[in-house]
Design a protein that fits this description.
Elements lengths: L22 E2 L7 E4 L4 E6 L3 E2 L1 H11 L6 E4 L2 E4 L3 E5 L8 H18 L5 E7 L6 E4 L13 E7 L2 E7 L8 E5 L3 E7 L1 H4 E5 L9 E7 L5
Antiparallel strand pairs: 1-4, 2-3, 3-13, 5-6, 7-8, 8-15, 9-14, 10-13, 10-15, 11-12, 11-14
């Protein structure tokens, strides 16, 4: 559910999410759609993954994470998170992610009109890592309705949403972690922005896995 901006709790591995077996729970009948504005919507499926904290550790230690630097205005800055990208047709770094993608394709392909194609992984090491306000508007996301499905593992941290242009009281928050699924759809990438803000609170690491269709970044 969307809430106003507030505190973030520290990471505690859940006994229910720390089992050796990792797998997806049903989507049909368990996904709740939240309409936004201007044709945008967000689907929520809390605790979609069994063994989510186990998968978090496998990805944290097994993925070849890398740092990036990007130009910003008149200088080049460090990207405040570690990254890994899986292009269309390349193997995903864990069988559980292949299972998750197959389940997302089975549930959303009719509405989306195509399967998900790529996967971007981000490792937020602590509260200093973040992602600024943005929409996924490189490629078709700038001009067409699309979907971006995000599986969040590890520490629960806020994913913030606001309409493009902002406005007083416009920011909304989802507290996501431990295998939660959020899918942004419709015009969401064009008409809304999302962010994971920095925090000075003591928070543990977080991984997000973003599944996108071809031509959306």
């Amino acid at each position: 559910m969307f809430d106003t901006v507030g505190d973030v709790t520290t990471f505690q591995a859940s006994l229910l999410d720390s089992g050796a077996d990792v797998g997806v729970r049903p989507l049909r009948g368990a996904v709740r759609r939240v309409p936004l504005t201007a044709g945008a919507w967000v689907d929520l499926r809390p605790r979609w993954l069994d063994g989510a904290d186990t998968l978090f550790e496998r990805l944290r230690t097994g993925v070849p994470w890398h740092a990036e630097r990007r130009p910003m205005y008149d200088r080049v800055v460090d990207v405040p998170r570690l990254l890994h990208f899986v292009d269309e047709g390349a193997p995903l770094p864990d069988p559980a992610l292949a299972e998750a993608k197959a389940a997302l394709d089975a549930y959303y392909t009719d509405e989306l009109g195509e399967p998900f194609a790529t996967a971007g992984l981000c490792l937020y090491r602590d509260g200093r890592d973040s992602v600024a306000w943005h929409g996924d508007r490189i490629g078709r996301g700038a001009t067409h309705d699309t979907m971006v499905a995000i599986v969040v593992l590890g520490e629960a941290r806020p994913l913030l949403f606001r309409p493009v242009g902002g406005g007083a009281g416009a920011t909304r928050r989802l507290e996501l972690g431990h295998g939660d699924l959020v899918v942004m759809g419709g015009s969401c990438q064009r008409t809304w922005e999302h962010a994971v803000p920095k925090t000075t609170r003591a928070v543990g690491p977080r991984i997000s896995v973003q599944f996108r269709p071809r031509g959306v970044r």
